[in-house]
Recover the amino acids of this structure.
């Protein structure tokens, strides 16, 4: 009985900590000088949330052609909708994307091109 009780407690603790590890905004960026800037970013699709919600994209995983962008996420190229483009100057330099995963696949809520250096 003690073994079973211990196992239940350990499984419950593991589930709790795994859930908190998956949380996107865990406070790591609370003191960043760019936090308020990230929090203010918006595209035509709405607010982009914060740096913790976005992901940096390597130069080989995005491209521009004829004024439109696309980004490679999870091995597939996804066209960035024009209204998902962030038009304010990029203060971090690196390309950022805010994807949304849904039943129809991945869509892009916000995209901020980088310097491609």
């Amino acid at each position: 009985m003690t073994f079973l009780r211990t196992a239940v407690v350990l499984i419950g603790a593991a589930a709790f900590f795994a859930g908190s590890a998956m949380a996107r905004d865990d406070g790591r960026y609370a003191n960043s000088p760019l936090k308020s800037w990230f929090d203010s970013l918006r595209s035509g699709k709405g607010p982009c949330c914060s740096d913790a919600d976005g992901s940096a994209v390597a130069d080989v995983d995005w491209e521009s052609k004829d004024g439109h962008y696309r980004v490679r996420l999870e091995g597939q190229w996804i066209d960035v909708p024009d209204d998902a483009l962030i038009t304010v100057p990029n203060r971090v330099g690196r390309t950022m994307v805010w994807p949304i995963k849904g039943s129809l696949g991945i869509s892009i809520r916000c995209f901020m091109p980088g310097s491609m250096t």
Q: What stands out?
A: The chain has two helices and eight strands. The two ends are 61 Å apart (CA to CA). Helices lie at 2-21, 35-40.
